[in-house]
Structure prediction request, 311 residues.
Amino acid sequence: MMTPNQRLLRNLDWNLLYTFLIIVEESSITGAARWLSLSQPSVSNALKRLENELNMRLIERKKGLFSLTNQGLLVYEYVSSVGDILSHMADHFVGQEQQLHGEVDIQIASHLHCPALDQTLTDFHQQYPNVLLSINTQPSAQIITNVALGHTRIGLSNKSINQTGLSCELIGHERLAFFCGPNHALYQKKDIPLSALKGLDYVSFESDQPGEGLSCVTQFRAEHQCWGKLVAISSNEEEVRRLIIAGVGFGALTMEGSRAYIEKQQLWQLPPYAELLMSKVYLVTQDNQPLPIAEQLFVAMLRTSASSTTS
Prediction:
């Protein structure tokens, strides 16, 4: 069986208490009605209902007189304290349901450097801080397969494919060059002719082959007969760079990803010096696969960033 205190707590209507609070702060029924955008009779009725619920008179209302009773003053102090607490709660929670939540899952080639993507990651996180960004690396060919099969919805690849239901949009380019490490015979040698690369041990990405993501490297080596023994291979940029720095062989890396290692003298650029190799960067999505709202917004932002970057 409920106690009188429990019954009062159950039956008390915060709307009535809040209306009373505004009446006191506006010092009139008329002012409270204006502030609450309610009719004057509605506000008067709310005050009467509260007084009946508490079984006490809260405000002396006579012509030309508006004053709190002793009980009214005590109720105002309690309601004012509760109002401060609820106001802080409202500041914290109101609008939370409007904030975007969810996850943006992206598969990306490990060596891929794309200014539009970098800018989008910055802008998107600032605008939607509650969205989890999940980025995993895969070879370009595997990324396209995964998007086509629906295993992931957003891919960034160096490879494009003409396939029904699959969209490959060009969003940028990355520059590549050949490098060697400190233990290589060509390290710190300047003005090396391109022919000096012929027959040298070579470190390769898995996608450095005809028809794959870095086929531009394969094509260049074929055109200039820069063939040598393939001594190591990886799908991961970090491991290809490790192999090159270790002196296992020379290989192609992006200029953007190599800059810090050049400054630390761990990498040495080899020819060609003037005309760098250019690899295309594609946004891979399914044409007929609706994206969750977070991923829709991310892709739209990426397209806008790519458009402004290339214009």
